TrEMBL record:
Classification via PROSITE patterns: RGS
Main location: cytoplasm
Superkingdom field: Eukaryota
Pfam families (UniProt xref): RGS
Species this protein is from: Chelonia mydas (Green sea-turtle)
CDD domains named among the record's database cross-references: RGS_RGS20
Protein name per the record: Regulator of G-protein signaling 20
Lineage: Eukaryota, Metazoa, Chordata, Craniata, Vertebrata
Length: 216
């Protein structure tokens, strides 16, 4: 005679089905299961990825602008003997030619003051810009590279000029650093230029061109 086991009853079958489907928590826990935990982290990861890409693009743009604005050497033909002699006549005649700026910059490098020429050149480049967003970015880079007291290439400016720059940086333009550029130009003229004229760099170049002129 078969024993009557409760395993075959409808109630037991329903309970087993409920346990198998994961709903044995009962009606009091309905709706309390957590949502899929991968949704928000996935969205956050996407936002972080986009933000990181934007920051990397901004850093890359800044790096490219820096690389463009600070050439190792300006392209210029070899100066003539007449040009090199003219450099001794005035600082303006030295600075007006790429060859003159290259030679003077080489001298400044030996005195660890090349940043003065780099700053002056960056200001000249800024004056040629017309795109507002490029002007703002280049002005920011010039400030970070040559005006900020945290920069190793900070140029020497008085407090009045620094205040002018800080006001101008509220709305950067091609002329944001005009006062500072003039002050550095004057500094190079009065301080570095006389030493350059007596330097081996200038004298050797002058002698080399003189010898070539005689042979020709």
């Amino acid at each position: 005679m078969l024993s009557s086991s409760p395993q075959g009853t409808p109630e037991v079958c329903q309970q087993q089905a409920a346990e198998a489907s994961g709903s044995s928590l009962g009606p009091q826990h309905a709706g309390s299961l957590p949502e899929c935990p991968t949704v928000l982290p996935a969205r956050s990861h996407l936002c972080l990825t986009v933000r990181n890409q934007d920051e990397e693009r901004a850093r890359r743009t800044s790096h490219e602008l820096r690389a463009e604005s600070i050439p190792n050497c300006e392209e210029s033909p070899t100066p003539t003997l007449e040009e090199v002699n003219a450099w001794a006549q005035s600082f303006d005649k030295l600075m007006i030619t790429p060859a003159g700026r290259n030679a003077f910059r080489e001298f400044l490098r030996t005195e660890f003051s090349e940043e003065n020429m780099l700053f002056w050149m960056a200001c000249e480049e800024l004056k040629q810009e017309s795109n507002k967003s490029v002007i703002e970015e280049k002005a920011r880079l010039i400030y970070e590279d040559y005006i900020s007291i945290l920069s190793p290439k900070e140029v020497s400016l008085d407090s009045r000029v620094r205040e002018v720059i800080n006001r101008n940086m509220l709305e950067p333009s091609q002329h944001t650093f005009d006062d500072a550029q003039l002050q550095i130009y004057t500094l190079m003229h009065r301080d570095s230029y006389p030493r350059f004229m007596n330097s081996a760099i200038y004298k050797d170049l002058l002698q080399s061109l003189s010898e070539k002129s005689i042979k020709a």
